[in-house]
Write a structure and sequence with these properties.
The protein is an alpha+beta fold and 266 residues long. It has two domains: 110 residues, 2-Layer Sandwich (D-amino Acid Aminotransferase, Chain A, domain 1); 148 residues, D-amino Acid Aminotransferase, Chain A, domain 2. It contains seven helices and 15 strands. The strands form two sheets. Strands 6, 7, 8, 9, 10, 11, 12, 13, 14 and 15 form a ten-stranded mixed beta sheet that branches. A hairpin with a 2-residue loop joins strand 9 and strand 10. The chain is globular. The relative contact order is 0.15.
């Protein structure tokens, strides 16, 4: 089905459609794409995640081929490193939660400058443990849906801490992710990442890393085991990989992460 595509930073287009369910209820999904040399990085993984989310939430899918062409058009127009955010709403519906009255999906696209993460990627970051815990909801786990109030609260908490980021546990005391990135950690020389079947967002960079490094396995990380972690890094589509040089006040070596960076990102 075709979808209306609204370019947010085009003054000739409306900014947000009235009655949009993504605005009303967080009823939609989104993804954030790094653009380098006019190319949308990891586009196939972004697309696969969008398709999975749309299927799980029962959202009428857009014309994926037309959407991909529009993303590529935007990327081609930005040769300097930049960002495309793609937000897919269930569409416009009547008053109330029930989505039956929707007439089709809406897609919002906008571009922005690429954040400068070079210092984080080379020197590493200082990370603590968040007080807020993620709610457990298997029906939504892994999806990058537009209801992200937990992350808003986490960023408010981070602003009160003298740290670069926070690791977040779920309500079962299992460390899951950072405020806007996935977590990888090393125990006894082996690399792992927390599973995301109960909470968290399955990032496309996380997927890329797991595909390129099959020795990295999913393994739960209880909060009680944090002192046993030998090395760690955070990942997302814009950040790439950032070594953790200090974890909950304890200094970690970053050389093993730098080796992985060479293998994965170069």
């Amino acid at each position: 089905m075709s979808a209306e595509i609204i370019i947010i930073n085009d003054a000739a287009q409306p900014q947000v459609a009235a009655g949009c369910r993504a605005l009303q209820y967080g009823d939609g999904v989104f993804t954030t794409i790094a653009v380098k040399a006019g190319k949308p990085e990891l586009w196939s993984l972004h697309l696969a995640r969008l398709q999975l989310a749309v299927a799980r939430l029962g959202i009428t899918p857009p014309d994926w081929q037309a959407l991909a062409a529009k993303v590529q058009q935007l990327a081609t127009a930005h040769q300097a490193p930049s960002v495309i955010k793609l937000l897919l709403s269930r569409g416009i519906g009547g008053r109330g939660y029930a989505p039956e009255a929707c007439d089709g999906p809406l897609v919002y696209l906008y571009t922005a400058a690429m954040p400068d993460y070079r210092r984080w990627r080379t020197a590493g970051i200082r990370v603590g443990i968040a007080k807020l815990q993620l709610a457990i909801q298997p029906a939504l786990a892994g999806l990058k849906h537009t209801n992200r109030l937990e992350q808003v609260l986490l960023k408010q908490e981070l602003a009160q801490r003298d740290l670069d980021d926070l690791l977040v546990a779920d309500q079962q005391q299992q460390l899951t992710e950072a405020t806007a990135a996935n977590l990888f950690y090393q125990l006894e020389g082996a690399w792992f990442t927390p599973p995301l079947h109960l909470a968290g967002v399955a990032g496309v960079m996380r997927q890329h890393i797991l595909l390129s490094q099959p020795h990295i396995q999913e393994r739960a990380l209880p909060l009680a085991e944090i002192e046993q972690v030998q090395a760690a890094f955070l990942s997302n589509a814009l950040l790439g990989m950032a070594p953790v040089r200090e974890l909950n006040g304890r200094v970690l070596a970053i050389d093993s992460v730098q080796q992985l960076q060479q293998e994965i990102l170069c």
